[in-house]
Amino acid sequence: MIKKYNLFLDDVRIPTQVTWADVPINQHYSVVRNYNEFVDLIMLRGLPKFVCYDHDLSDCHYGHGLNNDEIPYSEYKERTGYDCAKWLVAYCFDRNIKHPPYVVHSMNPIGKKNIESYIENYNKTLDS
Questions:
Q1: What's the rounded mean pLDDT across residues 11-25?
Q2: pLDDT tens per residue, range 27-46
Q3: Taking the model in full, what pTM does it have?
């Protein structure tokens, strides 16, 4: 049996460095830095019990969405935390399960809203 785990997605930080969001720091996390590591870990270990999302996972993402401007997702070569959330929602959809509990600790307000809205909209479909 695979032991349940907590997943922390961020390109530079570790969980104890996040002081502005409600990240449970008294737990162990598997830390991943990008989309590929995120997908690979879940494919290897299964659904995490808790997920911490960052949105901006590359220097090219920094600056977009900070002033309530649109995020040019189609222009990015590197995938964002939003892409990770969409992938995990599809993974959950295929298994007819809810997305696990999560927090978005991104300092990008638009990116944070995009991740939260996507996950919440998906979870609501399972409630109806």
A1: 90
A2: 899 999 999 999 999 999 99
A3: 0.87
pLDDT in tens, 111-127: 999 999 999 999 999 87
Query: Phi and psi dihedrals of 51, rounded to 5?
Result: -130, 135
Q: Nearest 10 degrees: CA dihedral of 112, 75, 90, 7?
A: -50
**SS3 string of the chain?**
CCCCCEEEECCCCCHHHCCCCCCCCCCCEEEECCHHHHHHHHHHHCCCCEEEECCCCCHHHCCCCCCCCCCCHHHCCCCCHHHHHHHHHHHHHHHCCCCCCEEECCCCHHHHHHHHHHHHHHHHHHHC
Q: Judge contact between 103 and 52, C-beta under 8 A.
A: yes
At residue 127, the pLDDT reads: 78
Burial of 74 (0-12, 13-18, 19+ CB in 10 A): exposed
Query: Which amino acid would we find at residue 51?
Result: V
